[in-house]
Amino acid sequence: MTSLTKTIDAIARKARASSIVLGDTAQDKVDNCLRSLAGLLDAQKDALVKANRKDIALARAKRLAAPMIDRLTLSDKAFESMKKGLNAVADLSTPVGSIFDEHVRPNGLTIYKMKVPIGVIAIIYESRPNVTVDAASLCLKSRNSVILRGGSEAFFSNKALAALIARACAGAGLPGDAVQLVPTTDRKAIDMLLTKDNDIDLVIPRGGEGLIRAVVEKSRIPVIKHYKGVCHVYVSRFADMAKALPIVVNAKVQRPGVCNAMETLLLDKALSNPNKLKILSALVEKGVILYGDPAVRRLVPSAKRATRDDWFAEYLDLRLAVRVVDNVGEAISHINAFGSHHTDAIVTDSKEEADQFVRLVDSSSVMVNASTRFSDGGEYGMGAEIGISTDKLHARGPMGVADLTTYKWVVRGNGQIRS
């Protein structure tokens, strides 16, 4: 066996063994671990920033795009978000052990379902070192072992964060292998992990569409996917412009390099031209490059001509596709045809129209009179998220602690036998 094969085999075996121990670990130990880790982030901030600067320097040397460097950076805001998330997850009640669908059969058997951990979860991700902390916290809270394989661009940051997580686990009395970071940037390690179906129960990839498709194609293990975020905002003829303008600008501009940023704006044909122009001008003033259909280009001659590819595009920067549609029905049809089932929003004061949009848009999150940027585990009250699933089975949308559990049937009797 090669050295890498032995390493991956050992990581998978240790994760399985740790998952069994975690399943019988007192919840207060887990919560103490998470709170301790939040304190360590403060105490070791300088060392973490130093490690992060190594990654950023290498990223700049490789001329990575600005949005990628933004996702890579451990800013003060990122530190506060990680600490807030850790404490919020620690404060959550755990679903593990909870009982539901209980009933008593005519023969006296009591039958119910009980929430249990999934077991061992592998997270394969790119860019964002905060995922290391978020994934560890949610997996520990749900009593799952986790194997983390971050991107090469964040190797030093992830290594430093993983060392702190191990320290917090040891201090709280949790198994030392409950959270493991794959200690190499060799891409062969991913391929090897994806064959360990005897030890790993679930794979969650987070990153670009290419990474996710590669994982799906190679994995012997079930995968929860999040291909991309082609998010839409539809501004209806019944929209209140005092709401519409800030929602549209926030959805695109507040942080354009993330998966819940707006990538296509749909404007109702019946919206007045001055109001359409007001929205488009506000975006242009923020540096957004527009790719529009003929109706949009008549309003903003500087807009580039949109092609069919633009309706599918996840730009992740200050570029935006814009189309004028006849009504809410055409907006829904466009979203279902070109969207990625991530997050889509309507701005309208018509309850009937809003209800139609919510009912018929086939996405994991649907917003009414709110920015797509709220599609996030922390904003949904989960403390943090393991990812945003665009699948329909097991979990959909932002995934928190409850989504990292499954259930077992429990049957309690008093000597009953089947005749």
SSE map:
Layout: H1 3-22, H2 27-43, H3 45-61, H4 66-72, H5 76-91, E1 99-104, E2 110-117, E3 120-125, H6 130-141, E4 145-149, H7 155-172, E5 179-181, H8 188-193, E6 202-206, H9 209-218, E7 231-235, H10 241-253, E8 262-268, H11 273-285, E9 289-292, H12 294-299, E10 304-305, H13 308-312, E11 319-325, H14 328-338, E12 343-347, H15 351-360, E13 365-368, E14 387-389, E15 397-399, E16 405-412
Parallel strand pairs: 3-4, 3-6, 4-5, 7-8, 7-12, 8-11, 9-10, 9-11, 12-13
Antiparallel strand pairs: 1-2, 2-16, 14-15
Helix pairs in contact: 2-5, 2-7, 3-7, 5-6, 6-7, 10-11
Task: State the strand order across the main sheet.
Answer: 10-9-11-8-7-12-13
CATH topology of the largest domain: Aldehyde Dehydrogenase, Chain A, domain 1
Question: What is the count of structural domains?
Answer: 2
* Helical run tally: 15
Q: How many angstroms does the end-to-end distance come to? A: 53 Å
What is the arithmetic mean of pLDDT? 95
The counted number of beta strands is 16
| Helical percentage | 40-55%
Name the beta content range.
15-25%
Q: Which outline best applies?
A: globular
Name of the top-level CATH class of the largest domain: Alpha Beta
CATH superfamily of the largest domain: Aldehyde Dehydrogenase, Chain A, domain 1
Question: Could you give a short account of the major beta sheet?
Answer: 7 strands, parallel
Could you tell me the radius of gyration in angstroms? 23 Å
Structural class per helix/strand content?
alpha/beta
Give the uncertain stretches in residue-range form: none
Q: In the CATH classification, which architecture of the largest domain applies?
A: 3-Layer(aba) Sandwich
